[in-house]
Amino acid sequence: MNSRYAPAEIEKRWQACWKTEGLDSTPETVDDNGFYALSMFPYPSGTLHMGHVRNYVITDVIARVQRMRGRPVLHPMGWDAFGLPAENAAIERNIDPGDWTDRNIEQMRGQLEKLGLSIDWDREQATCHSDYYRWTQWLFLELFDGGLAYRKNATVNWDPVDQTVLANEQVDSEGRSWRSGALVEQRQLNQWFLRITDYAERLLQDLDELEGWPERVRTMQANWIGRSEGAEITFQVVGHDATPITVFTTRPDTLAGASYVVLAPEHALVGQLTSLECLEAVRTFQAEVARLSALERTSDDGPKRGVAIGASVINPLTAQVLPVWIADYVLVDYGTGAVMGVPAHDQRDIRFAGSNNLPIQQVIEAEGAAAAIASGEAWTDSGVLINSGDLDGMESTAAKAEVTRRGDAAGWASSKVTYRLRDWLISRQRYWGCPIPIIHCPDCGAVPVPRKDLPVELPRGIDLSGKGGSPLSQQESWVNAPCPNCGKPGRRETDTMDTFMCSSWYFLRFADPHNTDAPFSREAANRWLPVQQYVGGIEHAILHLLYSRFFTKALKDRGLLDVNEPFDRLLTQGMVQGTTYRNPSIGRYVAPADVADPDQPKDPETGDPLEVLFEKMSKSKYNGVDPAAVIDRYGADTARMFILFKAPPEKDLEWDDADVEGQFRFLQRIWRLVESAAGQLDSLEPRPQPDPLTQTEADIRRAVHTAIAAVSEDLEGDIQLNTAISELMKLTNAINAADLGNLRAPLQVEALSTLIRLLAPFSPHLAEELWHQLGGTESVHRQSWPVLDPESLVQDTVDLVIQVKGKVRGTIKVPSDADKATLEQLALASEVASKWLEGQPPRRVIVVPGKLVNLVP
Question: What's the pTM?
């Protein structure tokens, strides 16, 4: 055995061997015991970063442990390869985005393989390849046939830089595009949507089934779905008996306090109800609002602006005549696109009323309510009704039901449940995406492309300017196509699909990746789904995870699979943060290489002192660490061990080169430990344990099985990989302390065999090498996970701490079942007591059985 641990040579050799043996292939036959481990697949940027490493190594450990526990494992990988980044990169470099993407995939696959991940590459998928997006199109048609895909003219979020439509979720809290950073504008376009709102209640209720998900993620999804219970109330328009305005409110108990009604500026009734005197002001305001994003309009901090339209309505409860306004804070696609303004009991309304001199009528009384309203703060809590006619004195909670009941009997109100969730807008006016398989016929309308004609392939080699509408609309030879129904000339849909369409079902394709007749068979999906362990970033809590849940439920309803939820357990790993230097006076980041003195860092250009932070690794902050450089210097196993040990998987991790070096030294200690035993053992075959054991042997067996119990527990439920590695360190230290030469062969075999097998999921190359050096034949990764022997944990003796005046002065071995009197006697008779008490009896003895004796002179 070589005396030096050389990870580069070891890792390259074993990776080649595993590939030849097909070690990571998915078993063909799977019983009900199969385990599906999956990382959220990456966008192929071409460069692996430490966030990738952390994600994939966590999943790899989980997959390897399950294999060693005898479970058939599916552990695949693919590429979320469509989208604007590739198209923009292709425009900048004047190359085809497909060529650019394929090159990046090849490069990143090579980087991933160097990590020693136990991925079944035979199941690899790329969403931009036609053999994948053929089935994305097939599933779109399945949803279309089920009435879940439709087209409508709608106000959309328009990114003026990338020239494309954004979903609401892709606009940040400042109204900017999540990709380009541009201020988003509002436009009217004919768009494709999926009816995710049809599943709002199921998506909300079924969150209770997801006990293996972080509570934080479930809360985020529940808030995004945003269920509200209330009532729809109809206001008759004065002089327009046939055109009522219906509002939704969660507070029907405050109806008597309504002093105006507000329509969204885009509401269809605005044109009908606006008077000639108000027309110019209304049109001007509509144009101003069109430039604002939905988030800007509904922000709590933003101004609440509006104009009157010259119409009035009648309050159905009080018969009061109320003015009708339009305002920026009311959205046409939320609720009914109209709200009743109750300034005293809604914060947005009180701000709007104050700005426009509208009446503020308090109708809920409670301690502090009047004072709050007088100071400009709406009273939104419960109380007792006032100024509400015969409802005065009623508790507001009861009044909600009573007002709705009266309105229902009179025909002007009805109970209603609404959701914040909006239908999923999937249209994108870009080239590099999955084409929507629809042909528009002047006579037949929107006609699905026959499934036998799928895929509708993207034309390649076209000129991309990156500006204007969809580049596909300029490809006449591609756009012009006969109608599948009547044969007359038609035009293909030139919008492409939101990339989340591709990532909302990829986990199903991995279950049946070579199927040429369907996206997946029901049998294969039922065999592997749901994914038992899904690993990815918290940033996908709403977008990807919610869409994937919707897809799964919709496809179940279409009879394609039987599972109700796609992911059983979810682990959201924390970010990897690097040392970051920032000039606080100008907000500029400085590269570590440009910092001359890390102890007193200064800006090399201005001389200003720099603040030192830990922030998420990124190019713009110059704080990234190249995984390839770490692997080249220390090996993949060291990189894996550090990324797993530094922090609990769900917490942020602060990169530290010194800690990387520490993990390398730990692996070297294991190397030397096994090397010392290589000449003493000819195989790792288990042997009967001698009886009786010496004290040293009993201690080492206890350490071995303590490690088995602790590591196994850390890899179940709430996975704690960092503490599992700590247990490996404890076991290594215990074996070193015992000195293998003092142990008989069965104890040596058990200790080393257990250590190497427990190490294998974390440090797969080193474990494989050590296993074979000690006589192992088959791969260590095909060995069974160590089994706990509870009897080995039983201790005949324990270490008892001896304190004198509260300070630890030594330890003694005592029987584990000794009572207080015996412990006191043994402590007083010990050399520790003799030395520190100097022959004087203690005034007081404090005994904590099994732990310590404190002698007080």
Answer: 0.87
